[in-house]
Fold these 3 entries.
Entry 1:
Amino acid sequence: MGETIEPVIWVEKYRPSKLEEVVGQEEVTRRLISYVKSKNIPHLLFAGPPGTGKTASALALTKELFRENWQNNFIELNASDERGIDVVRHKIKDFARTSPLGGTLFKIIFLDEADALTPDAQAALRRTMERYSKTCRFILSCNYLSKIIEPIQSRCAVFKFRPIPVDAMKKRLLEIASKEGLTITEDGLNAIIYISEGDFRKAINALQGASTLTSTINEETVYQITATARPEEIWTLIEKAMKGSFIEARALLDDLLIKYGMAGEDVINQMFRELIKSGLDESVKVRLIDRLGEIDFRLTEGANERIQLESYLAYLSLVGNRLQNNQKI
């Protein structure tokens, strides 16, 4: 590639402009297309993990409905930045009370990350949604549906977005790579899938980051640019600890934290993924994951990550020793 583009710009560059092009959400887009055909929508609530197409769907829906007039009848607010009751009382209400332009029946207010709105702001919003429903429709997006109050949920048609399926993500990544003149090896593609965990925005940013180093993207490049350990390295760490090689396991942990620059939470997350798919006995998995959850909680509460991670390696060594001696754990 010639010039370097900021990751957020690259994501915007490949944001779908039509509902049919939203990746991996066929059931959702099918319902939204029916709204476009009717030229009308109710209030909508999009819920799901990050990077699964919620914002892309909202923009594509608006462009399909309003065509060339979409910018005059659409406003996007990020609720994580503007989350207080004053925003609802003034900025949102001022836009909602004005008439739509270009002969359209209504305008659209898109509240991204609506689960960051304070309870007071959500309470004020539900009344605004009712009062101005003739001239304005709301689209709310959130990661956690449970953080949206029930009165707002009952006023909206709820759409639940799922993590992007592997096949859909691979197909789209190969299309992007082809347009950018990049070559992705099979192991490189699988590495992007692994680190993204169904988050397509993360996948695109990983692809762009790797493209700044080389035009041929392989597994090593992806893990290097994303500061992620290979799954086999994480499993080797667990395996050595369980075989009683605590010092060797500690040295591997040093590599992950220093060489890769990983945070403690990242190591915990990858350990969890490897334990889930391991061939260990189910009762052993339960014990190990239970303790791993405790370590994760301590880290979020501000505990020292080195001490906590090494204490988990010590626990793995104790469990492994008991298993070797046929003792209960």
Note: The longest strand covers residues 136-142.
Entry 2:
Amino acid sequence: MALSGRLQYFPRIHLIGAVAALITLLIIVFWPSSPAKNLQQTRYVIEMPEIIAPATPAEPVLNWESAEVKSGDSLSTLFSRNNLSAVDVIELAAVAPKEALRLHPGQTLRWVRSQDNHIQQFQIELSPLASHDFSRDQEGALQYELQERHADYRPRFVSAVIDNSLFVDGSQAGVPQEILFQLAGIFGWDIDFALDIRKGDSFSLIYDEVFLDGDKIGNGNILIARFRNKDRELTAVRYQDKDGNSDYFTPEGQSMRKEFLRNPMDFFRISSRFNLGRKHPVLNKIRAHKGTDYAAPTGTPIKAAGDGKIIFAGRKGGYGNCVIIQHGSRYQTLYAHMSKFNRNTRNGRKVKQGQVIGYVGMTGLATGPHLHYEFRVDGVHRDSLRVELPKAKSIASGEKQAFLRKSSNMVNWLNSFSDSEGSQLGAFQ
């Protein structure tokens, strides 16, 4: 049957609709696409709702409190004074090394407390570079950590000519007091800074300045020093051995240190010398003066002349408050007329050279504040200003070559900057 014959069986309205649908389909298929659709396919983007991350809660601001340790303070007295829980002292002692809780006057303590006055964080400052830190963990138990920061050490060269004294002219040249004390200590066995210094003497040295975060926080050690005294020149090089022990030596490796200090005080005036025929100023009769008297203000620190053991510390007749130290089997030193003893000065205690054992006074037979100092060898009194002092040990043979290499470099380093007073130097390698 022909197509025209079959179409007669469809209603007219259906035929019109079919024709319209066919025309629409042809238009869709053959109508030219836009340039953009010829280049890329249409993309359908489903926009998802924005997910906002929860804000990180700000860390709570800690309310740090602080206090300075006073003379005689313990952790218990300090906690009581600041209304902190005494129970925490026991807890601190249980987790900290013993030496961490030994407080010294001038130290700063910092803490954060809870509402019931228990410490949440606690800090004992040792220096700008180190502190003992305590904090509570999630269970509330105290934890201990030694916090250390690293400083920047920058060497500096200085020199001065002496017209008045080491400390006056050194200070005027911009040398810090603590560095001058170091210098006096290094050469103190060979130079009597009260009697041997002459106008025109000079010194030059290189020492470390200590910086933290770009700011100077202090001074370090003298690295090398040279002192010209009258017709002699003395040079001292700082050297650290393989065990970490440091000391000063001549460029050839001889120790600058003797077994005894020439003088047991830093600031003084010799008021009376060793004299077996001296007339006693109080008893007014001839009585041998078997020591050296150092006039100084009451309270001036007195140092042990050498390593040893205290065999007497107390009141002793005309000597007043007196300390006697035994140094090995042959040597003894005596210190008299003290105003008071150092708190660690006790019979039987061992002392180190330079350790403060007491303070100048005028107890016993004395007309004014001074130290009476005696030096005995095999029980015989000797003039401490003239006796030849035994030397300490020098560089070990196993480290001699390493020392000599460093010593040579250090001496050349000092020589190269000897005319550059106050200049900043590059790090020594």
Note: Residues 33-46, 421-429 have pLDDT under 50 and may be disordered.
Entry 3:
Amino acid sequence: MNEFELIRRYFERPAPSAMLGVGDDAALLQVKEGKVLAVSTDMLVCGTHFFADADPYLLGHKTLAVNLSDMAAMGAQPCWATLSIAMPRVDEAWLEKFSAGFFALANLHGVELVGGDTTRGPLSFCVTIMGEVDASLALKRSGARVCDEIWVSGNLGDAALALAHLEGKILLAQDEFDACAHALHRPEPRVALGQSLAGIATGAIDISDGLLADLGHMLDASNVGAEIDFESIPVSQTMRKHLGEEIARRCILAGGDDYELCFTAPASRHDDVQAIGMQLTCIGRIVQGAGCIVRDGEELLVLESGGYDHFE
């Protein structure tokens, strides 16, 4: 099977909202009147972001999910994506499952694949996702203001706890690992939440590298500081069982791979946030200054690292 046969069989799908989709030198896209184009790119590399024996269906899901999470953080409606794949050889059964996972999530969110590339090399994926958003309502990292409340969606740390188990850093019972593994292998991008926050949130970011690291990006962009109440951070029952272990705290604050949203909103909009109708938790507030202070009762928590960095 050559490159073009591979693309036609596994990745060529109708793209009715595009003026021109897969099959030409470039796609032609038309953004709706009054909208701007939101664009984001993410790579997943074998050995860095996933194990070589990862389930291909779940890997297809996650490859798109991490990009959808960026659209969610901007409050954008995802529309189109390109997918580039490097692989050491063609495995048709593997590609069938990978593409099924990718397109199942794409169909759920109305995303059309409009281009990409394939090449021989170490297994890796690169998605560029494009969406539409009203320029005046786009959520940015730079909007946090002093006295805003800090919120997060879902539970934090489960994906990192599952990874720590796989790496032998902590031992989970099988039922505990199964409960956390879903967060690691099949994250749920908060696209609908991002759009619901339009006009309510002052800033947002998705939690991909860890709460402290990603919140830190918001603080730097907004020139503010933050105070976090560790006990307020939402965690699963499995995580709660292990809170006495240092690695559990690290998973919650700096583990990464959560793909939940962290956002800020004025205290006066507290009820509006709660009315959105999903698990959203206020964990702290924006303050003057710089950096983030994490309090666990009277104790100040200090971590050696704020989150994942590819080059450290």
Note: The radius of gyration is 20 Å.
